[in-house]
Amino acid sequence: MRPVTSRRTSFCRLCASSCGVLLDVEDGRIARVLGDAHHPISGGYTCPKGRRGGDLVHGPDRLTTSMRRTAAGTHEPVPVARAVTDIAERLRTIVDRHGPEAVALFMGTQQNFAALTPPMARAWFRGTGSHKLFSTMTIDQSAKWVVAERMGTYLGGRHRFEDADVWLLAGTNPVVSGNGGDGDGAVVQNPSVTLRAARERGLRLIVVDPRRTETAALADLHLAPRPGTDAVLFAGLLHVVLTEHLHDADFCRRYTADVAGLVDAVAAVTPAVVQRICGVSSDEVTAAARMFARGTRGMATTGTGLCMGPHSNLAEHLVAALNVVCGRYLREGERADDRAVLTRHVPARAEVAPPTRAYEHGFRSRIGGVRAIRGELPSGILADEILEPGPDRVRALIVSGGNPAAALPDRGKALRAMRSLDLLVCVDPRMSDTARLAHYVIAPTTMYERADHTAIMEPFFPRPFAQFTPAVVTPPPGVVDDWQFFLDLAAASGQPVKFAGRVLDPASPPTSEQLLAMTAERGRVAFPDLVAAPHGYLAGASGAVVCPATEEGAGHRLTLMPDDVRAELHAALTDMSVTERYPLLLTVRRIREAVNSTGIRVPGLVPGGTNPASLHPDDLAALEITDGQVVTLRSASGRLRATARADHTLARGTVSMTHCFGSVDPRGDAGVNVNVLTGTGDRVQAINAMPTMTAVPVAVEPAASEEDA
Fold first, then answer.
1. pTM for the whole thing?
2. 686: CATH
């Protein structure tokens, strides 16, 4: 009998790009994933992992029922209703004995691509009374929050990529990762085509990356600084802009408080100093500064390469300062950058939200006195929150759509922490590292088995756009929607849940479609109209413009060079991270075939299936190592074995590996995890406890024996 085949329209939810897809469904299974050529944003583009969406839904390692850890340390199937009851009972016991701060929630990357899960998970967490909230944002992007707290934020909106004539990308490789940084809509969808089209219309592209990445190969100017020296490079760019008076004096006069302090702080960071510290020629520094400042519109945006490195808070601050002094923001009366379609419109105003330094008065952890930022504690202290004795030690951790056992720094400590918990619950469709250590693994629906829309992703779209998708295939009977798990857990714990302004009745829960309609109530597109647009809804310009400043806001100013930032700049200028013992610098890179740990274990997706250590061929020759040889990498935090690979795109002195590989299962073959080499004890940022997770000093040598593993 021939299979029954139908073609369905949906969108991918593996990353922020949300590419439109066509799914060929045969007898209830996804047989093929194609790009949707009629999609107005992605235009038919799909990446390798997106095209393997059927394997992510139906693969042999997909969990079709929730699992419970046995006394023998194995896992056995358990009905989700039974699991919810048991988890609620164990949470109640922990809270009764140790208080609500003994409970923590970790929100992972994959949670963020389901519109209903983040608000429902937060609603459950609010009911616990705990402050121990963590997310992947504080693994790789929290420096952006620190900048807003120390500098303030201009509320008129930023220049758009669509009409820019210059753009600077630092520490991000959107041709591979589909992210131009900062959630600004820059180079997220169909990245190669988008960049080439922008270049053809006259945009000049500057890329800052220690590797000649796929994006850097398309640039007008590629700056390849020594890993970890980004802060000094951007101080040098500011030096040129300010000393040559290329800055926007009018914008600075109206919206900043201390340009003179910034001028003074970067006065000594000449292009010659940048060349000595960063390894970028002084001519290139000057050329990049002039190219960027002489453009009329455009931004400098950053990715995880900056945020995960040393001096990341400073580096991000100086990038923001570069945008400010060049006036790369929308002014009163200009068309507002309003991408809200399903979400509430927030008027853009030509004024400043002043720095609040909320981290100086938020909830305070007993670990290093670190305070919460925007309601979250830094993930860099999560392992210590679990391991350090104390009355509010974290004893129960719920993980939603994440894999902290693979993603957290200091892998040894992270694994000890996960294993020591009284209760670890992981919501994951696969037995990830974290799931393998969990007491309960809740098996959720996957992206094509649930209804969804793109409200959360609107800031990443280049134009006002929204899309709805129904469930395309029927989920296995033993799985549950992520949001439903958190609603049921709240009900079993006796906690009310408020969602979209309503207190939900767990005895008569709404459907996914009803919840999605609730979240879109304050948007400008009627939900039925969205549902009726299978390829998505291109809403068009809203007509909103940047409004005048309010009376109160008119007096606020951005702070470009506070005392603590000046002290950090001095430290960066005197930092000597490379030593005779650890003469190389390890940087992490992204690959097309995976988003963090998602996709790594799909058979045949990642070339070779492992995680090689890439070095420049001349470095391999100097170390007397051949391409393909097994090597040992050592850092101050640990050691691992990997296969050496020659890579001409790397600068000399650099080793490059991908993060989130490896497995706690000794039978697994998923490469090695670079967090064996990262630690939380040294070179940790103030304020956000961000450890150094790229530009890590290492040594590489031939592996002498299996004892090096």
1. 0.95
2. 2.40.40.20
